[in-house]
Amino acid sequence: MNYVFTPPAPACVPVLPAAGGGLFPVHRIYCVGRNYAEHAQEMGFTGREPPFFFLKPADSLVPVAEGETGAIDYPPLTKNLHHEIELVVAIGRGGRDIPAAQAADHIWGYAAGLDMTRRDLQNEMKKQGRPWSIGKAFDQSAPIGPLVPKARTGELTKGAITLAVNGQQKQKGDLAELIWSVNETIEQLSRAWELKPGDLVFTGTPAGVGAVVSGDVMEGVIAGLPVLRVAVR
Ligand code: MN
């Protein structure tokens, strides 16, 4: 059967060349909301609530090579574009109902990612009880650094996660502060969806989110991973 038009190339994230290179083909992008206590507080929530999820389209990824400054366009419809630095987990082996104790076996690797958010639109949708898609799942909303295999990093369960804008630190946390650990997140996600090789999971952002404008340069740093540097056009 012929395609009606040429299908687009699959979304991919490059693997760090020094770690073997190649392309990691992306299936879906799952994101965890409010997964650091201080960030939950700054968004007006307290306590440990069950994890909740939203998705971004695979083609919202903007891969950025190590040592380079990537770029995203300031998106339409917003006056309040926020940065959210996050540990991204790449799933190499799929499954349903994966117990937390076995979740690490399903992780292929890690990257630093940005869950860019049109906060004004997200807040409006929250207020109206409507879906977050317009606030979260827009074009170029997911800049991401190179993937590093877990075989090289080991399991990432602690270490600093920070984001600076124009050299000024804005976000700061530690992976150990995740309310729902990566393994618990995989357990919960795989109850709701069958995970597939190629799925990415944005695991949540630490406190200090804020706005960026055209001309700003964001620099996200997660211990053990290449720095992610992204300019806003
Ligand atoms: Mn987020």
Task: Give a written overview of the molecule.
The chain has about 230 residues and is α+β, with helices and mostly antiparallel strands. It has one domain: Fumarylacetoacetate hydrolase, domain 2, CATH 3.90.850.10. Helices cover about 15% and strands about 35% of the residues. It contains six helices and 18 strands. It has a six-stranded mixed sheet with strand order 4-3-15-8-9-12. The longest helix has 11 residues. The chain binds manganese (II) ion. Manganese (II) ion binds next to loops. Manganese (II) ion (MN) binds next to loops.
Short description:
The chain has a single domain, classed as Alpha-Beta Complex (Fumarylacetoacetate hydrolase, domain 2). It is built from 6 helices and 18 strands.
Question: What's the helix and strand layout?
Answer:
Elements: E1 12-14, E2 23-25, E3 29-32, H1 37-42, E4 53-56, E5 61-63, E6 69-72, E7 81-83, E8 85-91, H2 100-103, E9 107-114, E10 117-118, H3 119-128, H4 133-136, E11 142-144, E12 148-149, H5 150-153, E13 160-165, E14 168-174, H6 182-192, E15 200-202, E16 210-212, E17 217-222, E18 228-232
Parallel strand pairs: 3-15, 5-11, 6-18
Antiparallel strand pairs: 1-2, 3-4, 7-10, 7-16, 8-9, 8-15, 9-12, 13-14, 13-17, 17-18
Manganese (II) ion is lined by residues 31, 84, 86, 115, 202, 204-205.
